[in-house]
């Protein structure tokens, strides 16, 4: 267990007041879910149940991840999808790992300037709303490759629960209803989307009401029966191409026919003896998490304490340097020579540490360009099975409900992932990301992502499965959950719930979740030269699993549950389920 100021105080308190167990004294969150054979953590409780049932009937973690992916497309339509794309990090029970990139690709007719007007200025909304915003979806191909290569169960078995929820419907809880209410105006603009997600009177479905999606059920049934061809070569692709052509898009049949999943080597690094396995380009996530961890490894975070001015200072400075690299140097590996080994080099991290003034905030303008962003409209799930196979999946439509369009008869919401490209160097996208040439639009190219599905191992065994939605904050959310467990001794639920900070070069501000810092810590940081932005809302929705105990202390003592799961307790419809 890390020896920090808090544990030292805890130890003295426990000597003085032997009144209550330390766990209850210090629990800052609900207890994590426990399981001995498997754990599934997703943003929607029905999808978690689907995953657990797959594990119980003999499927492995990859099978469960595929079934959950399809289920979320039905019961969590703001981010779950078959009309978008994502990443799957797999760490097998033998310690080997792999990474599936099924993120969207730019259509063949895409051009670098496709979102600019004749004067070279971005056309408002062009990369966000409607068919021109849509990248070629990858989720169906990704799930099918995962199942065929690494799963054990049939496609029909894994898709049946999703088809059932689409055909028979499901009852909305508070979290589900809130997501529909928040996007009602946008969904109303597309008649096919409105017909599914809004009631005949135009109002969104409310708590206790049933959402039935017959067209989506038919599309899923066709995929279940015929496989990926039903999506990429058959009636579904035809319907999407037809709607795209009629409504200003550029998608063509060859875009679908040529879509291919990439199986890539994950990014790996070590942090204080833990082995991190995460997303490689076209995600920036794994590299930037590792770069920040490499810098932080040189500081005694555990002693400095969670949320202290000294800890926040070094975290922010590490983030500042790493996000400059993210926004200027990284892109699709088929198009860009990413400086992966340089950014992962511990010597490079030391160079960064040497530039950090121990007493003063850095100045972003003194570094290279780049930007800032937030999206809650992605989703992450974490799964581990009885054999110890661990799967982390983050997938997305980009914005909530993607481009807000559904091709008639398909029931499939389409993404607006094209907005993750650089529209024009120096001009921010929806979430304020200001990016460079490495991420410029080219046909068949994949936009740079921040999604960071991550597995941490210790001594050759899985230790933690973690990831989150949150746009460019995905990286810092995932990073902070790891640090909270390893350095600050929090249990997995506390690590996920703990208020976060975020910095990403520009704007030169430290974003702080509500109650993230005490007023005197805020004053100390302001005195060092930091500009704090005290947010009135939380961000992200991390979903994680810790193996061998709920916290490092419990793991070290032995006797904890084998699997301990947690979803951000502020997430209204998510659930961690173990068995
Ligand atoms: N669309 C969010 C991401 O991929 O980072």
Structural write-up:
One of its GO terms (molecular function) is leukotriene C4 gamma-glutamyl transferase activity. The chain is globular. The longest helix is centred in the middle third of the chain and has 21 residues, at 309-329. α3 runs antiparallel to α4 (61-75). The protein has a seven-stranded antiparallel beta sheet. It is an alpha+beta fold and 579 residues long. The chain has 22 helices and 21 strands. The chain has a domain at 58-83 and 101-263 and 396-439. A hairpin with a 2-residue loop joins β8 and β9 (274-278). Bound molecules: glycine. The site of glycine (GLY) has 9 residues, from loops.
Radius of gyration over all CA atoms, rounded: 23 Å
Number of strands: 21
**Which kinds of small molecule does this entry bind, naming each only once?**
glycine
Number of helices: 22
Average pLDDT metric: 92
Q: Give the helix level as a range of percent.
A: 25-40%
Calculate the terminal CA-CA distance, rounded to whole Å.
27 Å
Low-confidence stretches: 9-25, 369-376
What does the overall shape look like?
A: globular
Strand order of the largest sheet: 1-20-19-15-14-9-8
- Strand percentage: 15-25%
Main sheet overview: 7 strands, antiparallel
- Which structural category do the helix and sheet elements fall into? alpha+beta
InterPro entries: GGT_bact, GGT_CS, GGT_lsub, GGT_peptidase, GGT_ssub_C, Ntn_hydrolases_N
EC number: 2.3.2.2, 3.4.19.13
Family: Belongs to the gamma-glutamyltransferase family.
Active site: 378 (nucleophile)
């Amino acid at each position: 267990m890390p020896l920090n100021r808090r544990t030292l105080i805890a130890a003295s308190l426990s000597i003085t007041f032997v009144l209550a167990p330390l766990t209850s004294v210090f629990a800052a969150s609900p207890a994590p879910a426990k399981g001995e054979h498997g754990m599934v953590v997703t943003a929607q409780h029905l999808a978690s149940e689907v995953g657990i049932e797959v594990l119980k009937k003999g499927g492995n973690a990859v099978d469960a991840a595929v079934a959950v992916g399809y289920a979320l497309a039905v019961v969590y339509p703001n981010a779950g999808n078959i009309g978008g794309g994502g990443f799957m990090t797999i760490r097998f029970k033998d310690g080997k790992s792999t990474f599936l990139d099924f993120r969207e690709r730019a259509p063949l007719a895409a051009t670098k300037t496709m979102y600019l007007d004749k004067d070279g200025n971005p056309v408002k909304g062009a990369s966000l709303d409607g068919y021109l915003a849509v990248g070629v979806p990858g989720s169906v191909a990704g799930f099918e490759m995962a199942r065929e290569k690494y799963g054990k169960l049939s496609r029909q078995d894994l898709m049946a629960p999703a088809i059932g929820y689409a055909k028979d419907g499901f009852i909305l809880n508070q979290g589900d209803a809130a997501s529909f209410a928040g996007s009602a105006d946008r969904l109303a603009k597309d008649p096919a989307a409105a017909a599914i997600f809004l009631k005949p009177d135009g109002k969104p479905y409310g708590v206790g009401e049933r959402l039935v999606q017959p067209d989506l059920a038919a599309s899923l049934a066709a995929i279940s029966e015929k496989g990926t061809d039903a999506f990429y070569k058959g009636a579904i692709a035809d319907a999407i191409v037809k709607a795209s052509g009629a409504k200003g898009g550029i998608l063509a049949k060859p875009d679908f026919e040529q879509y291919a999943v990439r199986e890539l080597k994950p990014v790996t690094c070590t942090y204080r003896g833990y082995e991190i396995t995460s997303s490689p380009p076209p995600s920036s996530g794994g590299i930037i998490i590792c770069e920040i961890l490499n810098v932080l490894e040189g500081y005694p975070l555990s002693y400095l304490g969670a949320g202290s001015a000294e800890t926040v200072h070094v975290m922010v400075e590490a983030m500042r340097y790493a996000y400059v690299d993210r926004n200027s140097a990284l892109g699709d590996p088929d198009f860009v020579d990413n400086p992966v080994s340089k950014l992962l080099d511990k010597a490079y991290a030391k160079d960064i540490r040497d530039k950090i003034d121990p007493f003063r905030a850095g100045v972003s303008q003194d570094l290279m360009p780049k930007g800032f962003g937030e999206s809650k409209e992605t989703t992450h799930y974490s799964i581990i099975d009885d054999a110890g196979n661990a799967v982390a999946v983050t997938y997305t439509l980009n914005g909530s409900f993607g481009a807000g369009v559904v091709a008639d008869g398909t029931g499939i919401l389409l993404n607006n992932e094209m907005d993750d490209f650089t529209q024009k160097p120096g001009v921010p996208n929806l979430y304020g990301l200001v990016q460079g040439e490495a991420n410029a639009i080219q046909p068949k190219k994949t936009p740079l992502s921040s999604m960071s599905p991550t597995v941490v191992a210790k001594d050759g065994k899985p230790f933690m499965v973690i990831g989150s939605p949150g746009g460019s904050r995905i990286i810092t959310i995932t990073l902070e959950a790891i640090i909270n467990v390893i350095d600050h001794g929090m249990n997995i639920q506390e690590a996920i719930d703990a208020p976060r900070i975020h910095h990403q070069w520009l704007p030169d501000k430290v974003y702080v979740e509500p109650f993230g810092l005490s007023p005197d810590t805020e004053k100390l940081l302001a005195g060092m030269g930091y500009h704090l932005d005290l947010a009135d809302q939380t961000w992200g929705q991390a979903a994680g699993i810790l193996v061998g105990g709920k916290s490092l202390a419990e793991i070290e003592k032995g006797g904890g549950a084998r699997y301990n799961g947690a979803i951000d307790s502020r997430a209204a419809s998510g659930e961690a389920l173990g068995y």
